[in-house]
Amino acid sequence: MPLDLYYSIISPPCRVVLLFAKWLKLELNLIELDVLKREHCKPEFLKLNPQHYIPTLVDGDVVVWESSAVLIYLAEKYGTDETLYPKDIALRAKVNQRLFYDIGTLMRSVTTYYHPILMGGEGKLEDFKKVQDAVGVLDSFLHGSRWTAGEHITVADFAIAVTVAALDGVLNFDFTVYPNVHRWYEQCKRELVGYTEITKEATQKTQAFLERFRAMRAGEQQQLCNQQQQHSKVQQQQKDDQHKQHYTELQTPPKPRARECPKAVAPAIPTPLDEAKSDESSRMSTGD
Q1: Which residues contact 206 (CB under 8 A, 6 or more apart)?
Q2: Do the bridges between strand 3-7 and strand 28-32 make them parallel or antiparallel, or are there none, so unpaired?
């Protein structure tokens, strides 16, 4: 029964698994995912791998991702040569160290330097020096050693070989100043089954991927620019409307207030009592 492998050949970790599967002569059911279409984020794939990483290997009920974990799984279950992932704890620790060096140092330095270039810019000199330092460490590993962890090929060689191939293909790195790495790299090209074919196919598809990616990126940037311009126009229109309203309020004369008039006093209406008082007054004034 073939193993399902969700992958994209432009991804170096995916190529690691492809290369090792060829070495073990395993039959793979290849399921290619287009990351630009975000096929790795579809619900059906997330059920398998909630981190949506590729490569993802499905072997019956077993699902494994992270390329180093996949290598170890395949070596332990399907490998007939125990030197690929040694049972001896000291040798295994050495192989593990080489795997972690690839992930945490070599691959990271390459990715950090290359990412700005991928975006259409330039890599930083200090980041390139980290790449050189990482390759120098690999050169020390290979001093007096045929393979990266000793005299026998291990899973670490497959992982590091693909990273070095990416470094060679993407950056045209000069390995001749690192004699041990140069010797080992040429050895990998000769002895790793399918290495040249997989690397060549990856190089071709990577160029097409980069063209699509940069075109998509340019389209997104243009769309963002248009949105920003539209937003600026709306803001300016709102400011103009506010200014116009304020100007109109200043130019409009206030309505005159109604003049205050004294309250009219109603004439007093004489009452019978008042009339009586008036007659009495008259009599008193004329009585003398």
Answers
A1: 10, 169
A2: parallel
Q: Answer whether residue 67 shows pLDDT above 60.
A: yes
Name the token pair of 229: 């311009």
- Coil, strand, or helix at residue 3? strand
Average pLDDT, stretch 202-215? 78
The token pair that represents 115 in the structure block: 């990412």
Q: Are 17 and 7 in contact (CB under 8 A)?
A: yes
Residue 150: how many other CB atoms lie within 10 Å: 17
H or E stretch at 29: strand 28-32
Report the Cα 106 to chain-centroid distance in Å: 20
pTM equals 0.74
Query: What is the reported pLDDT for 11?
Result: 92
- Looking at the annotation, which residues are catalytic? 11
Amino acid 192: pLDDT: 95
Say whether pLDDT at 216 is over 80: no
Cα(105)–Cα(86) distance, integer angstroms: 23
